[in-house]
Amino acid sequence: MIMFNFFRRKYTPRPIFEALGTDMHCHLVPQVDDGSKCFEESVECLKTLKAVGFNKVYITPHFQHPRFDNDEEDIRRRYQEMKLRAVEAAVDIEMAGVAGEYRIDSGFKNRLENPRFLQVAGKYVLVEFSLHQQMMGCDEMIFDLQMKGYDIILAHPERYPYLNVLGSRMEQLKNQGVFFQINALSLGGFYGEEPKRRAYQMLERGWVEFMGTDTHNTMYAQALVDLSNDRKVEKILNKYEFLNKTL
Description:
Layout: E1 22-23, H1 39-51, E2 56-59, E3 62-63, H2 72-88, E4 94-98, E5 101-103, H3 108-113, E6 124-128, H4 138-147, E7 151-155, H5 168-175, E8 179-183, H6 193-204, E9 210-212, H7 218-227, H8 231-239
Parallel strand pairs: 1-2, 2-4, 3-5, 5-6, 6-7, 7-8, 8-9
C-alpha cells in the first residue's frame, strides 16, 4: 500500500547560492542523457536554479561510451534550441555555454587522439569516473589531457566509494593538479550519508574548488529548494572560497 506524507514540510526557495553565482554542472539539454526529458522540464529547472540564487549556468551533458555516445556538434545544436526556449519563457538566468561531463571509460582514449572537448568557460574539461570502480589507466589519460593544455575538473569525487578522503588516492589526484567539484546535494544527504560525510571531509581539507548542482530533472530541483533552507550549507557557501564566480 502506498503511503503519502501529507505533513511533509513545504519549503520555499531561498537564494543562498548567490555566493556561488554560477552552476557549472547540470544536465538540462533534453533527451541526450539521463537528465531532462523535455524542454519544458529544462525551463522549470532553470527557473528553480534562479530562485535559489544562481545567475549563470553551464550545461554539461554526459559523454559516455556506449550509453551516451553524444556528438559535440549535435549537442551544440540542441543547446541553442534550449537557449531559445529559455528566452521565450523569460527565464532570467544567463545561459553561459554548453560543456560536457566526460566519463573516463573504454571510449575515452579515442577522444584523446582527436580532442574535441566541450569545455566549461572555454577552459576546463569536466570528467567523471565510474561510480563503481575506477578504470585502469585513468591517471595516464588525465595526464595526457593536461599535457594537451587542458585543466581538469573531476566531477563529484565524494560519490566514488573507492576514493577515500583520508587515503592516498585522492591526495594523489590533487597533487596531479586536478580540480575537485562536489555536488551541492551531497551536503544534504541526497546521495546517502557516505557521500555527504566525504563531501564535508573534503571541504575541511580545503580540497574543493567548485560546487555544482548536477541537476537532472525537477526532482533534483525540488531537492535544491529544500537544501536552500539548510543553514549549515548556507554558512559553508558564505565561508568557503569556491571558484565558481571566476567562470
